[in-house]
Amino acid sequence: MIVQPDWWRNDLLKTARKLEARYRQKRWAPRSLQSFEKELFIGFFVIRKLFESKQVDKTLQGRHVSVTAYTINDAIKGALTKRDHLAIFDAGKGQRQPFTIFKLCHQFIHSFVFFPFIPVHTPTGVFFSSNDHLEKHQVYYMRLLDVLQIYWSVGKNTWYDLNFEQDERGVLVTLPES
To answer: Of 78, 82, 83, 155, which is most buried by a Cβ count within 10 Å?
Structure first.
């Protein structure tokens, strides 16, 4: 049970700010990756606890977000700890699937595969696995932009459409000031 939801929401907003800064990060040491992973998992756990404690606005409870599901290649099943994570599925054959925010939190927290997608030093998203009957057959991809939008919206307890800009450096995310 969450007694003071504002404290949890404020921590979630701080985590969103940290993730926003990741778009500008150029060097990714193992410690950076570990911190990034921790920020994502703890944030989704906080959101799930807010949902379970009925501390989330009804408009967010029914909100769906889209992830892309990829079927794991039969030839590589069981080798999910392989260093070349992108080889475990056919990147050209993803299917968009809607998840409620609560279901997304559950899937993410209980996933058995997690790896960030960081082309050219800028994180664009994360891959994670399913935790249901498909767990050995699918991985999901979610844009980091969508993660930020969820964290900020739940932190503010209302849906926010965030502004994303693109320039020569790539995608830039700017969270509101307050």
So the answer is: 155
